Each structure stands twice: as C-alpha cells, then as structure tokens.
Design the sequence.
C-alpha cells in the first residue's frame, strides 16, 4: 500500500507555533522532504529529533518530485516542509501534491502557521471575501498586467513581498489603486518585533521612502468600492413611498425613508405622492 504525503507547516517566526500534531507527524514519517535541509535541521534539533531528509526545492522539483513519489508508492510516508509556513503556498509543494493526486497517493495537509491568514486576520480590513495574489512579478510587463487585472477588484487583496522590493511595490500599488486606498502592512508576524501598520497606500509609500523597510512583510490591501447603484427615478421613488404608506407607515415617514435611501428630493417626492394618493381617493 502506498504511503502518505503530509504537508507540514513550520513556524513563521515563533517556535511556540509547532503544534502537537506537527511534532507527532514529523516523528511518525519515514523521511522529510525539505526546501532547505539546513533550516529544517534546526527544527529537528529543537525537537531533539533525527530523521532522514531529502531536498525538494524550487529548482529540483522535476527530479526530486518523481523520486519522492517512487518512495511513497513503495509504502514510505513523507513530510514535506518548507523554510517557514505552509508548504505549497508561495512555496514548493504544489507540483508534488499534483503528482501524488495523479498517482492516487493520499495527501494530508496539517493546519498551522501561514503568513497570509495571520496577516488577514489581524489587518482590520474586511475578511469576508479576499484574494491571495502572492508575489508580484519582477518583470515589468507581467507586473503591470497583474496589477491592471486588479483595478476593480472589490475583495481584500493579500500580497507577499521581500523588504528590498517593498518600496517599489508600494509605489506601484499606490499608482494602481490610488493614494487613499487603505493598506495594512503586517511585518515580522509572530516575532519579537511584530508590527501592524494600518494606513493608506500614499502614506505607506512616503513612510518607507524615508525609513528603509526591514523584516518580512505581508501587504493587505482594501478592495475597490463596489460600483454605485443605478440612480433611482422619481417615479420609482413615488412607487416605493406609496408601497410603504400602504403598509401603514405615515406618509411623511415613508417619503423621508425613500428620500434617505435614494437621494431623491424629499419635497418633490412628497408632493407627487400626495397628488397621486388624493387622485386615488376621488
Ligand atoms: N508558505 C509561506 C506561508 O505559508 O506563509 C510563505 C512563504 S513565501 C516564500 C515568504 C513570504 O511570506 C515572505 O516574503 C513574506 O511576504 C511572508 N512572510 C513569511 N513569514 C512572515 C512573517 N513572519 N511576517 C510577515 N510576513 C511573512
């Protein structure tokens, strides 16, 4: 019987985030596939654990992936770990999961540290609907195409960025979405100098233009305002006010409510409703 591939998250800065299940999974597998074996060795040492490791990183997935799959098919179990956070999220793993899925090998994802979820939760921006955009491309054309596709995005957007590229990314975000758009810059999450700066794109670009950024960042950007509703015609306003009136609401209150909801002029609305209602009585 084939073994199981476990996707095992590791702390994004705080070793206290190694859960019991993460530790038990690492203990239980036959071998670990690590993005950087030196980084993962530190975690194993912290847990006083020894485990055979193979490397699985961005530039060897084509050879290492099939080799790991062969071992899984032979019945061994494997924990995939990256340098920090959840494997397969802006990290190696996506292809290995696809390979296993195709070959009918079970994949089990262990929940745990993930920078994007931690940042979104603490951002103070709407969390109901969001989109994860990962890293913006370095290539100018691809970067522009990506940003242009987000101009009317109404969901909260989450970006990863390295500190040395943060300023140019903030400038591009400001130029795309406008200086007034809100952003939460979540820095060094779970670490000693964790910081959440809730500001606007214009202010963030100015601030980091003068104060070179340090540490790791997740950028959480407010979505675009939803498109304005079609204006309501005066005839529709009269109809709505009459409907409320017919439900027992005082005429003045019905007109007030419709005027408030639609922006229609209260007095004109009132005159029209009174005229129509009195012609109905005759
Ligand atoms: N797979 C990881 C995860 O689950 O979050 C993400 C790996 S991606 C290569 C690295 C990026 O994640 C960094 O450039 C940064 O944007 C973000 N990141 C990782 N750790 C972070 C932290 N402690 N605070 C803020 N951002 C962090």
Sequence:
């Amino acid at each position: 019987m084939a073994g199981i591939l476990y996707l095992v998250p590791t702390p994004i800065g705080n070793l206290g985030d190694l859960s019991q299940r993460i530790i038990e999974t690492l203990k239980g597998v036959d071998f670990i596939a690590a993005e950087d074996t030196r980084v993962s060795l530190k975690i194993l040492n912290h847990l006083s654990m020894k485990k055979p490791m193979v490397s699985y990183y961005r530039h060897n997935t084509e050879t290492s992936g099939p080799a790991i799959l062969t071992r899984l098919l032979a019945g061994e179990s494997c924990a995939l770990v990256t340098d920090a956070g959840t494997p397969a999220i802006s990290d190696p793993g996506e292809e290995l999961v696809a390979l296993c899925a195709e070959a009918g090998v079970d994949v089990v994802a262990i929940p745990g540290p993930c920078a994007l979820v931690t940042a979104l939760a603490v951002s103070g921006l709407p969390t109901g609907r969001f989109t994860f955009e990962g890293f913006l491309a370095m290539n100018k054309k691809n970067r522009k195409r990506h940003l242009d596709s987000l101009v009317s995005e109404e969901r909260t957007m989450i970006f990863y960025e390295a500190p040395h590229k943060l300023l140019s990314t903030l400038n591009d975000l400001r130029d795309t979405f406008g200086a007034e758009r809100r952003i939460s810059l979540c820095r060094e999450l779970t670490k000693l100098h964790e910081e959440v700066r809730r500001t606007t794109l214009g202010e963030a670009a100015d601030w980091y233009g003068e104060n070179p950024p340090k540490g790791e960042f997740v950028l959480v950007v407010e979505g675009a305002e939803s498109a304005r509703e079609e204006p309501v015609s005066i005839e529709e306003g009269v109809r709505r006010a009459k409907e409320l009136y017919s439900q027992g609401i005082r005429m003045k209150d019905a007109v007030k409510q419709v005027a408030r909801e639609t922006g229609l002029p209260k007095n004109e609305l009132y005159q029209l409703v009174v005229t129509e209602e009195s012609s109905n009585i005759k």
About this structure: The chain has three domains: 4-113, 116-221, 234-281. Strands lie at 4-7, 31-34, 53-55, 78-81, 106-109, 130-134, 156-161, 182-187, 195-200, 217-221. Residues 234-281 form one domain.
